[in-house]
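Hello Y.,

Per our agreement to keep a running log of every chain we model this quarter, I'm adding this entry. I've kept the format consistent with earlier entries: sequence first, then predicted structure.
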Amino acid sequence: MSQTEISIRKLERMRILLREIEYLKHTLNATLYWDKLTYMPEKGLAYRSEVMTFLGNQLYERFDSAELRQLADYFDGRRGNAPEVDAMIRRIRNHDIYIRKIPQKEYSSYISLIVNAERGWEQAREENQFSTFAPYLERIVAAFQSFSAHWGYEEDPYDALMSFYEPGSTVREMDRLAEELRDFVVPLFHQIRGQMAESPSRPDFALPLEEQRRLSRQVLETIGFDFAAGRLDEGTHPTTLAASPKDVRILTAYTPDDLRSGFFNTLHEGGMGLYEQDIDPNLAGTLLGEVASFATEVAAARLYENLIGRSAGFWRVFFPKMKELCPSLAVPNWEAMFRGVNQVSPTLIRNDADELTYPLHILIRYEVEKDLIHGRLSVRDLPEVWAEKYRTYLGVIPSNHREGVLQDIQWAAGYMGYFPGYLTSNLMAAQFAAAMERSLGPIQTLLSQRRFEDIHQWLAEYVYRFGALYPPGELVRRATGEPLKTSYFIDYLREKYTAVYQLKK
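Predicted structure for the entry above:
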């Protein structure tokens, strides 16, 4: 048998093993998780915990198999590899680091903890008692302190956690980006806040839930979400889960007295849904049929939520349809809607934050996560520190735990080191949009001409279809022609809010 024939057979075998891993991974992290968040009865949690722990162990064992490691060794650095093969090896090595380096007993215990921690978080929110969730969070923090030691790092244990979601991320670089954004956002926020008293009265944004549901479906159809390959449901916390490009589940959440919350939840998740649906289906069974990283997926979400969904061009064309679908809508015209979705106002809830102050919510989470992992902050002191940071950054203080430290599900779901990606995602979104405008023309013109499909197809062609074939930094360079910068996002915010609030330049 020739060397070429041997390589072909080994590649076929490696694809079989990876496809089996994907079967487990998508069942565990998408289908079962979606069911748990939507329709699973409360009493089903105990047995579901056993099932998810079992599948987690199966996934661990398959990544830990000697055969897969031998196949990866065979192809690693081999001359003549196709780019897809090199990318597959990179992904196998990453999983090897982040899963196999954790002892199986510890990994199994962690999976069981997370399944039950989410229910503990939900109960704590219902009771408005942080103390109900605190024991879970203490164990989660301890788990990730241990994980960072297993995974290894050069300078900071938090580097290991961030790199799980964004390969190569470091506290050193993130601190620099955070400082640049903080130095721009805080002064602009205070400048705008100084003239808030002169702002006109706000329209009534209350809307019955049934009309909000119709509106959500309509906006997803408008941007190109394929309902034959996905669905829209409601949950406690908005999220997007994909079992494949042909099976993408969006969860949204509504607020009866303010349609903006549910509308932008849906549009945000819709951006993620488009990304998942546009990944090349030929990448299935390679570990590459996934988003490049958390931040690249959220970049798609922020692009649709903010750069499109909060633009004047969008509301000029979408508002008439909105009035048709929502007879109870009290907002009089598109101009009032545009002003209403671009109001800058300090809020306690991250998901309800305006586009300008949103980075400050992420900075708070980034800072407390670092302190938790370093042991500089104890879980029991978290609510007090959280409240003080909100007072310092945004001038508001939570009156209860539900609108404070219990508002996010991420820690309960086992996402530690995840929030910094929200900062880089905003930078990516603005940079992708700038590159698209160089190719297609101004976004405002595209929207006024109802060219939503052109926007969708540009993103699919230059970003989405590649899945995880390229690391996020390389994907940004390929799509935009340059490395990630803060300047596009800062320029976008400056131009937008100078116009909205008629600020002096």
